[in-house]
Design a protein that fits this description.
Shape: globular
Distance between the termini: 18 Å
Structural class: mainly beta
Helix content: under 10%
Strand content: over 45%
Order of helices and strands: EEEEEEE
């Protein structure tokens, strides 16, 4: 996660292919919404968070194959 906040929405699921810079989730931090995007193209292996979960800076939220 790039920021500490709350997961609002997860846009991907395991097995789904994603392109580089595709939005993978939406976080809320200090009443501002932040889109988290994929750093590179790949296939989602595992989603480690769900809407409502708290996340910290540097926490792994999505794993790619």
């Amino acid at each position: 996660s790039p920021v500490t906040g709350i997961v609002i929405k997860v846009n991907v699921e395991p097995g789904q292919p994603v392109q580089a810079n595709a939005p993978i989730m939406l976080l809320e931090a200090m009443k501002m919404e932040t889109n988290v995007t994929a750093h590179s193209a790949g296939k989602v292996k595992n989603v480690r968070v769900a809407p409502g979960d708290s996340v910290k800076v540097g926490q792994v939220v999505v794993e790619f194959e």
